[in-house]
């Protein structure tokens, strides 16, 4: 009984989720660079701006940037409703199959992991929507043997982390102001060093 009360109070305390954002970088300790995952997520109520965006995106497909729901497998869509949008222009069957296979399955499982962890209250799962902007490194096409399990795990972990950060409002503005001068954008630093 106490657990049910605690869950209800957490959900009630959360209130309406209009629109929250998060991102995460996951790089495995070893393996090819294409295993890195860096999703950017938007989460909010389906009867608000996120729901309207999902409806517009799914109904307005663009060549090379297909929008698809995150699924565990065909005919098994996850909740909260999750729409994947590719950051990379998709123009090969191999890339499509990897994106709509191992990556899609990893994202779907990451969403469910965020619910299981309590970052997304289970009671709100049917009323929330998520948009995941997906990065799959095009160098995956050059691999002789693609590490599908690695892609699955990295996208699963990165998605769950990004959703947790979104729901917790991380990083906070206080952390950002304190650490602004201590954080350097990786590619900016490479450019300054003449490495790009």
From TrEMBL:
Enzyme type, top EC level: lyase
Pfam families tied to this protein: Fae
Formaldehyde-activating enzyme domain location: 21-187
Protein species of origin: Caulifigura coniformis
Protein's UniProt keywords contain Lyase: yes
Keyword annotations from UniProtKB, A to Z: Lyase
Protein name: Formaldehyde-activating enzyme
GO molecular function, one term: carbon-nitrogen lyase activity
GO annotation (BP), single: carbohydrate biosynthetic process
Annotated TM spans: none
Known EC number: 4.3.3.-
Gene: fae_2
């Amino acid at each position: 009984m106490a657990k049910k009360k605690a869950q209800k109070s957490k959900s009630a305390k959360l209130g309406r989720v209009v629109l929250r954002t998060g991102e995460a970088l996951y790089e495995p300790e070893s393996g090819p660079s294409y295993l890195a995952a860096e999703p950017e997520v938007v989460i909010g109520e389906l009867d608000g701006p996120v729901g309207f965006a999902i409806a517009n995106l799914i109904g307005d497909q663009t060549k090379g940037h297909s929008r698809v729901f995150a699924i565990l497998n065909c005919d098994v869509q996850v909740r909260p409703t999750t729409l994947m949008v590719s950051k990379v222009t998709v123009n090969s069957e191999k890339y499509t199959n990897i994106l709509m296979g191992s990556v899609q399955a990893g994202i779907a499982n990451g969403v469910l992991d965020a619910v299981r962890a309590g970052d997304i209250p289970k009671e709100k799962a049917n009323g929330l929507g998520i948009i995941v902007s997906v990065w799959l490194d095009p160098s995956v096409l050059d691999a002789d043997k693609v590490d599908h399990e690695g892609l699955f795990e990295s996208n699963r972990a990165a998605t769950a982390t990004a959703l947790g950060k979104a729901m917790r409002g991380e990083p906070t503005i206080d952390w950002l102001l304190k650490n602004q001068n201590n954080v350097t954008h990786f590619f900016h630093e490479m450019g300054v060093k003449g490495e790009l």
